[in-house]
Amino acid sequence: MKLKKIMVIGAGQMGSGIAQVCAQAGFDVLLHDLEKDRIDRGLHAIAKNLTRQVEKNRMTESEKSAVLERLIPSMDLHDAGGVDIVIEAVVENMDVKRDIFAQLDEITPDHTILASNTSSLPITEIAAATDRPENVIGMHFMNPVPVMKLVEIIRGLATADDVYKKIEDLTKMLGKIPVEVNDFPGFVSNRILMPMINEAIYTLYEGVATKEAIDDVMKLGMNHPMGPIELADFIGLDTCLSIMEILHEGFGDDKYRPCPLLRKYVKAGWVGKKAGRGFYTYE
Ligand code: CAA
Ligand code: NAD
């Protein structure tokens, strides 16, 4: 069965990036969100990225138009009835994701693969909300999706080998590099990255240095492209907090305890770049 049509659920920073790379690879893509405004913003961000490609002579104006024509907005989950693969990229919350996967199990044809872009939630538990756990898999893109090469592919306990293979092939078709990992809290990427970010926030909380100084240390001293505080804002502080909570609960070890300062910013609604304000402010 050839994968032709894709639905991306969630038109936020990740969902819009995933939709862009899928449409650029020639797939028809339904971009679904609960809010029309989020879809409009997602499509606007994609158009802006593609315009930049045209300006840099990496794409023609007609190629750009063709990519945009392959992107279809969707406000109704039942539109998933005709797709071969769904890539879910909504908020990092188990109840929300399980609810969506249970609905997709009813709506989509038997062959449809249900993939989640979750940063840290157990794929096996998401899969258990469906009657087709063999067709459920983690497809973890990195932010910003059009730029970052990695896709972490996570096997749930029941994920079938042929489903893994199809997602591995799809990853390569999107111009990305797949890395296989097993289903453990935070997988590989966030088990390593997020404690570093959390520790950077503790370093700020304890008054060791300013946020700018912490970021400079990691940029100039370790050659990181972004400092950890800036990166936390870039990822979204709500997402960072959810991931830390999942690591804390999943491993039961206090070393993963989210920093109180991180909690405070999320409670304030200062969730980072996407909200215009996090540890830094944005226009
Ligand atoms: N969407 C699309 N393209 C983007 C982009 C975006 N949001 N942001 C930057 N780019 C592109 C630019 O257009 C530019 O492309 P060209 O070279 O073709 O012109 C290129 O990226 C470089 O951008 P800039 O020159 O503006 O800026 P930069 O050199 O500082 O790079 C960056 C920006 C790529 C984001 C870089 O700062 C970086 O790599 N930061 C770290 C990103 C990272 O660690 N991501 C992983 C986060 S963790 C995660 O994703 C997993 C999770 O579950 C939380
Ligand atoms: P975001 O807040 O930018 O976007 C989430 C989108 O999901 C919003 O547009 C929201 O309206 C939509 N949504 C919420 N509930 C929905 C529902 N029931 N049905 C349809 N749409 C719904 O978040 P994001 O940063 O794009 O993260 C999305 C997912 O990707 C999360 O699971 C996150 O952990 C994961 N992820 C994030 C990053 C990152 O750096 N931000 C990296 C990799 C993976």
TrEMBL record:
A GO molecular function held by the record: NAD+ binding
GO process annotations (BP): butyrate metabolic process
Domain spans labelled 3-hydroxyacyl-CoA dehydrogenase NAD binding: 5-183
Site note Important for catalytic activity, residues: 140
Residues spanning the signal sequence: none
Domain 3-hydroxyacyl-CoA dehydrogenase C-terminal as annotated: residue spans: 186-282
Sorted UniProt keywords: NAD, Oxidoreductase
Pfam families referenced in this protein's UniProt entry, alphabetically: 3HCDH, 3HCDH_N
Residues noted as binding NAD(+) in the record, renumbered to the chain: 10-15, 33, 92, 97, 119, 143, 274
Keyword Oxidoreductase: yes
Keyword set includes Oxidoreductase: yes
Family: Belongs to the 3-hydroxyacyl-CoA dehydrogenase family.
Name of this chain's protein: 3-hydroxybutyryl-CoA dehydrogenase
Native source organism of the sequence: Domibacillus antri
